[in-house]
Amino acid sequence: MQQPIEDDPVAIYDAWRAGRIRQCPTGFWQIEANARAVLEALWEREGIPMEEVPHRCRQRWFKERVGTLNRLYRGSPYLLLTSLYPSWWQPSDFPELPKADDLQEAAFAQEGLDRDPDPMRRWALSQKLRSDRQGKCRICNRLRDTDTIYCSYHLSVFRQRQRQRYAEWREQGLCYRCGGRPAVKAGACQPCYQRILINRAREMRRHYWRNKAQGLCCHWKCNAPAIPGQTLCEKHRQEERQRYYRLNYREKARINRQRRRDKEAPATP
Description:
The relative contact order is 0.03. The chain has helices spanning about 10-20, 30-45, 55, 60-65, 65-70, 75-85, 100-110, 120-135, 150-170, 190-215, 235-265. By secondary structure, the chain is an all-alpha fold.
């Protein structure tokens, strides 16, 4: 959560109400800590207990005292109070039944979703978040498989459609990932290929440090026990040695030839 702009937000509010400053700083009311501090100070001054806030603080009360804050929450006392104080009041505590849009906004705020202007996008995000928390498939209500967002049936359907789409793009000479650009290398376009390399490097780093902490082989896609004091198993240790000698054979041969020439050359007087 963001920190208040000033140490004492109530002093800023009093200075604004007294006319000593023209307006509150930019973004003052967007910080929930500032809004709560000002509201609690007003309730204490007017002797309004927290239990009576929904009945005594209606739309006119917020409009007269905190007009900017009231506009941020569409002039809805229910949305304002439930957003700043979640799980404090219920809809039955208010004298009037809140509007359906306000109830929906408050539900999204409780689920941790941002207040997006598109209601259909907020609804879709809420459905995905709810299914993820319950461990259910995003399409149906069956339990999903491990490390996926679908159940076994919809996962097989999704993979089959994906293979068909990739096959069609490959036949047309397009990138098998985006399908919008011609393939350049390994069946992918240049931007997608660079993205593949970046993701693979990240996965290899995660695999390396995870296996190193567990005492396993740090070679890519190998989980065999590592040699004590080493980071590789016996198999990949031998492979790395052969690869090292093969890559450095020419350089070592050049160095050895130069050493023999230096020994055979006559010493200068």
